[in-house]
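Form 7-S
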Amino acid sequence: MSIAIWLLAPLIGLVLSLFASGGGMIAVPLLSFGVGLPLKQAIAMSLIIVAGVSALALLHEKRWQHIEWKLHRFFAFGSMLGGFAGASLGLGMSDQTQTIAFASFILFTAWWLHSDTMKSISENAKEAPCDCRYSLLAGLGTGVVTGVVGVGGGFLIVPLLLMLGVGSYQKAVAHSLVLIIPTSLVAALRYSESIDMAWYPVVIITALAALGVWAGNVLMKRYSSKHFQKGFSVMLVLLATWMLIRVIHGL
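Output:
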């Protein structure tokens, strides 16, 4: 295992713990460029890692107690359908196209974190009855993203949940962690029909990411996750730029 694995794998758990997303954005390039796996294999394995680490982050501090299960039910059903469809789309894409889609999503996330829309959604969030139709559609859309690029999609799920009536950021984070698990696993199963899994890196990276979950929960008790958003956004921009340069040079 390269030194990059030991240094970067804990970041998967750290960002998932802080933001309920972002783990796949580190796991995919880590598996693809750090371990040297083909992109689609890296995406499939990233989905399993993200699901496992999300479960750890959810259990830590008993975040599952904040779940509004009626809302979750419809969102989860839509996201699993979307995850299967997105993985099917991903299997049909070239590696170059999928890498560009992945890097584009990273750049969008870096912008979205600091957009006025995101700030407005967070500030105006309030408890409201679940509109199950919109929950189903929101889950379907985020599930497609998860399946295509191999990320949990929490940066989309959290604001959507706030718009759908989850009244606080912490509750939305808990919901997002629960939703990521089945969606990622369904998408991973779809990829596994065509791709062999390398389980050793999955186990090692998940174990190292668990250390990041612990560190993230320690930090959350002392600081708001907003304190870390700027640094995370800069890292995302650099990562996406690096991946796009590699694609351009490979054409």
